Amino acid sequence: xxxxxxxxxxxxxxxxxxxxxxxxxxxxxxxxxxxxxxxxxxxxxxxxxxxxxxxxxxxxxxxxxxxxxxxxxxxxxxxxxxxxxxxxxxxxxxxxxxxxxxxxxxxxxxxxxxxxxxxxxxxxxxxxxxxxxxxxxxxxxxxxxxxxxxxxxxxxxxxxxxxxxx
Length: 166
Ligand SMILES: Nc1ncnc2c1ncn2[C@@H]1O[C@H](COP(=O)(O)OP(=O)(O)OP(=O)(O)O)[C@@H](O)[C@H]1O
Ligand SMILES: Nc1nc2c(c(=O)[nH]1)N=C(CO)CN2
Prior knowledge:
Layout: E1 2-10, H1 15-28, E2 32-37, E3 41-43, E4 54-63, H2 67-80, E5 95-101, E6 106-108, E7 111-113, H3 122-131, E8 136-137, E9 142-143, H4 144-148, H5 153-157, E10 159-161
Antiparallel strand pairs: 1-4, 1-5, 2-4, 3-4, 3-10, 6-7, 8-9
Pfam family, one: HPPK
Catalytic activity: 6-hydroxymethyl-7,8-dihydropterin + ATP = (7,8-dihydropterin-6-yl)methyl diphosphate + AMP + H(+)
EC number: 2.7.6.3
């Protein structure tokens, strides 16, 4: 069985429902088992600042799907949840990125694994550290915590645990 980590992000309300529905749709697939879920984090937008705060989380899955089939299913979920692709890095109902797939590296533009920007994203590294503290991310061959240490304090401050009651 293959082990992958996926990043989920949303900044259009109802944000919590989009996360819940995306996870349900992952669990509905007979070839995917979601075996780890991080907490939900509220995060300041990175890249394109003029947009609402995100909810982000990371899940660990086991799957018999090959990487492109997994990407295809992630994109089906994005489409079902009404994802529009207009502004790069802009607002979205749900974004599902494949962070890692086993210890594989893929350099095909349509599917870059590990995700090439994950090392600079505290909104990915903090939840990944929570569920897989010892996992060494291929390409950098470093744990999430070690990559976090290379980021600015301000990037890390933009990520805080989210609870429904604020
Ligand atoms: N690891 C990956 N996970 C998901 N999509 C990927 C990955 N590597 C490459 N892609 C490609 O990136 C394309 C654009 O993806 P998307 O619209 O989700 O980007 P984005 O969320 O705006 O930016 P980012 O990838 O920085 O999070 C997808 O169509 C997909 O083919
Ligand atoms: N905080 C945060 N910022 C982002 C996010 C995201 O999920 N969270 N996704 C982006 C495009 O992939 C761009 N910027």
